[in-house]
Design brief:
Layout: E1 17-23, H1 27-37, H2 47-52, H3 62-77, E2 82-88, E3 100-112, E4 115-125, E5 131-141
Antiparallel strand pairs: 1-3, 2-5, 3-4, 4-5
Length: 148
């Protein structure tokens, strides 16, 4: 899944906001993520068990949230971008049916080893504006000077 418009290094300014993207994880997606990752922890698919653990509902997997955040970055950077570094931490709980919004900002632009690099601050927040998953990324972007 990539965007249609390629982002170029020269077209960005430090402080620029990435266009936000919202997703609403479903219990079906969570079941499939559990199956693919072989995560059998019942807090992700059994509501009664989650309640016995003091949770409000089953929880969206932390790694699933990280995967959605990284997909937000790779979709934004376009087909000619390269994800050099990505890290995130889980700081809050998300539940199925809850709208999660992925946002980001250009922290820094720089050149390194012949690459046009952009450092990003990215995050996932819930409908109340609480940051659940903060992260950072460094991406290499094409340049208009490279004929693109």
């Amino acid at each position: 899944m990539s965007q249609t418009k390629q982002i170029y290094f020269e077209d960005l300014e430090e402080g620029a906001e990435l266009p936000p993207l919202s997703k609403t994880p479903s219990t079906t997606q969570m079941f499939l993520f559990s199956a693919v990752t072989r995560n059998a922890h019942r807090i992700h698919y059994e509501k009664d068990f989650a309640a016995s653990e003091g949770l409000p509902n089953v929880l969206v997997h932390g790694p699933m949230q990280g995967a959605m955040l990284s997909a937000f970055v790779t979709t934004w950077m376009g087909d000619r971008g390269f994800l050099k570094r990505f890290a995130y931490t889980n700081r809050g709980m998300a539940t199925p049916g809850e709208t999660l919004t992925f946002k980001g900002r250009v922290k820094k632009k720089f050149e390194t080893d012949g690459h046009h690099a952009v450092e990003l601050k990215v995050w996932e927040e819930n409908a109340r504006g609480e940051v659940l998953v903060p992260g950072q990324a460094v991406v290499y972007l094409p340049s208009h000077r490279e004929g693109g």
